[in-house]
Amino acid sequence: MLDHTLKNTNLTYRFPKNFWWGSAASGPQTEGAAQSDGKKPNIYDYWYSIEPESFHNKVGPEHTSDFYHRYKQDIQLMKEVGHNSFRTSIQWSRLIPKGDGKVNLQAVNFYNRVIDELIANDIEPFMNLYHFDMPMCMQEKGGWESREVINAYVKFAETCFRLFGDRVKYWFTFNEPIVPVEAGYLYNLHYPKIVDFKRGAQVAHNTIVAHAKAVEIFKKLNVKGKIGIILNLTPSYPRSENLEDVQAAHVADLFFNRSFLDPVTKGEYPKELIGILKERELLPAVEPEDLQVIRQNRIDILGVNYYQPRRVKAKTKPEPAGAPFMPEHLFDPYIKPDRKINPHRGWEICEEVIYDIMMDIRDNYGNIPFFISENGMGVEGEEKFRNSEGFIEDDYRIEFIQEHLKWVHKGLGEGANCLGYHLWTFMDNWSWANAYKNRYGLVEVDLKNDLNRTIKKSGRWYKQLSANNGF
Ligand code: BGP
């Protein structure tokens, strides 16, 4: 067995002073109480009510880890596993349940209590405003395809800044905004399960406009804090250095990374991406003021979620004529034969990609301040790693974190402006259609035993990591 006991004196990787150590989660994935205290359904609550079989073991959103009632105990556990910062999200469908602007006071009380409890325990609260959880009343108006929903979201954001901006200093407008586009409008994975590239492009554009307008109101209100967005950056690597493969990777990068990264940091879409869409008549409808709002409202801070790279190669054969457009018409996926894999989740593990991302931000995005806002290792069937003392002995997760942090450390040494590292996630939580299939937490949540929390070996190690500010 590996010995992960660390000595303060013997650090190989030291991190900058005040580096953020913590984790990320979200309201819909942890709170539970999905139908109580005034909360109304979001699209996942609704989807579960009509298609429970679409969720792993038919576990729905109301079963999430009950943070709503156990937040005090959970915040103590955060402290115990070394958190100096923690991100969660405010559920729109809890705060403004009917979508009419009227605030639910029970929600205000709850988020106030969570924020105050975090601060009282020296844990900096980071708040995100949208983590895939479109209120159903907004989806009925067209979701992100509707301009009315953009305006309602901006109102929601403003309400959050006014209510909580005196204490929350780090705000994020969206988590992984490309995921609802991919899952809901391209690949038939999540509600509303539409498969239509052009509608997906409209959802993406409207999301960016909503983001920019939220940044605008944040600045107007003069909130004393920073505002940003959390993007899942999945860099595209070509199979080979052949021009066709390199070009395929470049195009994949335009669709899956730069589509969001460029407008929020540089204030404009990549011209090549616009060209590709224009040629195919796939450009979304753009209102006259949209591009100006995007240009004028750039982020202060970027959150980078990184799990695995995308590998691509040039297309081997063209799509049949007339097939509805998909980004994959322009490149083929590639599986690297000697890749390292997380056998418990099936995802590739490639740690040095985190360094490539850091260098890309340093060199091509003005070295803006950022932090690793999610990174983590999902494990299916993790109970099998429980030891005789009754806790999960997840050496694989400790090693996963260490190997990534080595590259973060190298990037820092080369001038990257990285402010912290947040693991996905604090405690095992519910993850959309995958429900509780893949466990990511530093703390186990026992579904069979009253949602009992037990710190895993990684949680004990994370505490030392944070206390030593390195390993
Ligand atoms: C990220 C999301 C999280 C979480 C995580 C794990 O992309 O931001 O919300 O769900 O992925 O996903 P999964 O449980 O499907 O492995």
Give the arrangement of secondary structure elements:
Layout: E1 20-24, H1 27-30, H2 43-50, H3 67-80, E2 85-89, H4 92-95, H5 105-120, E3 124-128, H6 136-139, H7 147-164, E4 170-175, H8 178-186, H9 197-220, E5 226-232, E6 236-238, H10 243-266, H11 271-279, H12 290-296, E7 301-305, E8 310-313, E9 332-333, E10 340-341, E11 348-349, H13 353-364, E12 370-374, E13 379-380, H14 395-413, E14 418-424, E15 438-439, E16 443-446, E17 452-455, H15 457-468
Helix pairs in contact: 3-5, 7-9, 8-9, 9-10, 9-12, 13-14
The structure holds 6-O-phosphono-beta-D-galactopyranose.
6-O-phosphono-beta-D-galactopyranose (BGP) binds next to loops.
How would you explain this protein's 3D organization?
With 471 residues, this protein is of the alpha/beta class. The protein has a single domain (20-468), classed as TIM Barrel (Alpha-Beta Barrel). A hairpin with a 6-residue loop joins strand 10 (340-341) and strand 11. It is built from 15 helices and 17 strands. The strands form five sheets. It has an eight-stranded parallel β-barrel, surrounded by four helices. Strands 6-8-9 form a three-stranded mixed β-sheet, covered by helices on one side. The chain has a two-stranded antiparallel sheet with strand order 10-11. Helix 7 (147-164) runs parallel beside helix 9 (197-220), helix 9 (197-220) packs parallel to helix 10 and helix 13 runs parallel beside helix 14 (395-413). The radius of gyration is 21 Å and the shape is globular. 6-O-phosphono-beta-D-galactopyranose binds at residues 26, 29, 175-176, 232, 305, 374, 378, 424, 431-432, 434, 438. The site of 6-O-phosphono-beta-D-galactopyranose has 13 residues, from loops.
